[in-house]
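Blinded run. Sample ID left blank on purpose so nobody reads anything into the name before looking at the predicted structure. Input follows.
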Amino acid sequence: MNSPILSIRNVSKVYASGHQALYDINLEIQRGEIFALLGPNGAGKTTLINGICGLINLTHGQVTINGFDHVRHYRQARACIGLVPQELTAEAFEKVWNTVSYSRGLFGKRPDPALIEKILKSLSLWDKRHSRLLTLSGGMKRRVLIAKALSHEPPILFLDEPTAGVDVELRKGMWDVIRELKNNGVTIILTTHYIEEAEEMADRIGIIRQGRLILVEDKLTLMQSLGKKELALELQRPLHALPAALQDPHISLSADGRRLVYTYDSQTGQTAIASLLSRLYEAGVVYTDLQTRQSSLEDIFVDLIKEDA
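Blinded prediction complete.
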């Protein structure tokens, strides 16, 4: 396997107040992947990103970015990173073209109008290139932040809550932009509150809670191994209680007695359903309709956070 583009070893962060925000984080990010870091508010997501990007000093550990130690070779390491922060910070009276071009210059890169044009067009900002930032919508301002982060052609892009405060339509558009960046070879690490965003785009998922990385897994493997399925049956006649043959911790009866819900492991598949239907027949329970539902990543995330609490 190729060496990871980002390697995080035994990273911890303790603030002067004594508060420990990160505990012994170990993580490797592969080239060209989209990695989603999930966690509740205050879990340490932004602290970890800020530490990697050199915006705060880490207390312990080592970060290697594209082969460069982020302390000993700070300038080279930082040049490999584009950071799109959570806050919409920008010079309100500056024009889009100028602010993106200026960001490129901050990294000592020669002016490249053709590249800036390409970036603005890819983010649907070309028509706004002469507009002042204060005239743009929240979604457009966030796209400008992405353009600024890409202006010096970094191989790694950090997106801290990239679609926070953006409406559903613009969020979907942002997903398309992120996929296109991946197709162009950019490695993307994103934090998000929208778990469907991670489910839609990420190759791997990391879950952080109270400063500890409690799980890192391939998204599809995670959903297969921890996902559950539900089989819901609408009953012909309501039940006052579950018959003895259906007493099972995985079977629940709705309050009105008209609906049975059976939760089973994704691995057991058709075997679990066949067994249940056989038990229903033997118990004389008749159903009129049935539906199945697969766990979402959000379901798995909530279960993990509860288990770790």
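Unblinding after everyone has recorded impressions. The chain has two domains: 6-223, 227-308.
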